[in-house]
Amino acid sequence: MDCANVDVMVRFWSAALGYEVDRRDDDAALLRHPAGAGPKLLLRPGARRGGGPSRLHLDLYAVDAERVIGWLSTLGARRVGRYDDDGERGYILSDPEGNEFRVMTAGPTGFARPFV
Prior knowledge:
The chain is α/β, with parallel strands linked by helices. The protein folds into 2 domains: 1-46, Signal recognition particle alu RNA binding heterodimer, srp9/1; 57-116, 2,3-Dihydroxybiphenyl 1,2-Dioxygenase, domain 1 (Roll), CATH 3.10.180. It has helices at 6-17, 65-75; strands at 2-3, 20-24, 29-32, 41-45, 59-62, 78-85, 88-94, 100-105. The protein has a 4-stranded mixed beta sheet with strand order 1-4-3-2, covered by helices on one side. A 4-stranded mixed beta sheet has the order 5-8-7-6, with helices on one face. The longest helix has 12 residues, at 6-17. It is globular, with a radius of gyration of 14 Å. Pfam families: Glyoxalase_6. This is Glyoxalase-like domain-containing protein. Residues 1-103 form the Glyoxalase-like domain.
């Protein structure tokens, strides 16, 4: 993910996902799950092109979305709106640099496994 301030984004996303810094150099940081499971997240300096929407589409599924959103807000996330489409419900948030992501209510579908 391109970031204006890598340090701010490392603090936010490592806390939000429960990840740790796998590698760090002068410019970039690679975050990973402590058990090595799941995808890694590379944070590096750079600006979004054209000021449009972020190119990353991240959905986090939670059993108690309101509680998770409250916690993410203490980390610097901002609530943008609600999402309700095709039986899936959740909230659109933005991280400290304005990249939007969703916190979805974990439902009965096989895809929606809660992270918290």
